[in-house]
Write a structure and sequence with these properties.
Length: about 150
């Protein structure tokens, strides 16, 4: 089933179950996707974003909520931090499984070989390969330094 359809079904199920918090998060997800659809049409695109782009949107939403939760915790607003963490749980249901440490290392090694990278100057090529294949499956902020270590 297409990710967009799964999200629509989940939205309807949340409405029927009267799960207010889940419904709110699913509406935020759908709004972000619709915003991207509209932006793409404005750029001359066909109108509907792909599953890959939806995965990127979801990943971005998780990162935003992680940062917000951290800020709320530092500010002593634990109830707001908890709300952000609950939203992350709902969003992550629609993201692909995160790769484990050794899987990330294997992906990096494979990307370095595929890009023909030999020095730190080729880091952008390696990251482009990784982002093309593993969007939503790894934290690229943490992967960057690992790639740098292997190339440097």
């Amino acid at each position: 089933m297409v990710l967009r359809d799964r999200l629509q079904m989940a939205l309807k199920d949340a409405m029927r179950a009267k799960a207010a918090e889940r419904l709110s998060t699913l509406r935020l997800i759908n709004a972000a996707i619709k915003d991207r659809d509209i932006a793409q049409r404005g750029e001359g695109g066909e109108g509907l974003v792909s599953d890959t782009e939806i995965t990127a949107i979801l990943s971005k939403m998780v990162k935003q909520r992680q940062e917000s939760a951290r800020v709320y915790e530092e500010g002593g607003r634990l109830e707001l931090a908890e709300k952000e963490l609950d939203e992350i749980k709902v969003i992550e249901e629609y993201l692909p499984r995160q790769l484990a440490g050794e899987e990330v290392d294997a992906a990096i090694t494979s990307a370095i070989a595929e890009a023909g990278a030999s020095s730190i100057r080729d880091m952008g090529k390696v990251m482009a390969v990784l982002k093309g294949k593993y969007i939503g499956q790894m934290d690229f902020g943490a992967v960057g330094p690992r790639v740098k270590d292997l190339l440097g």
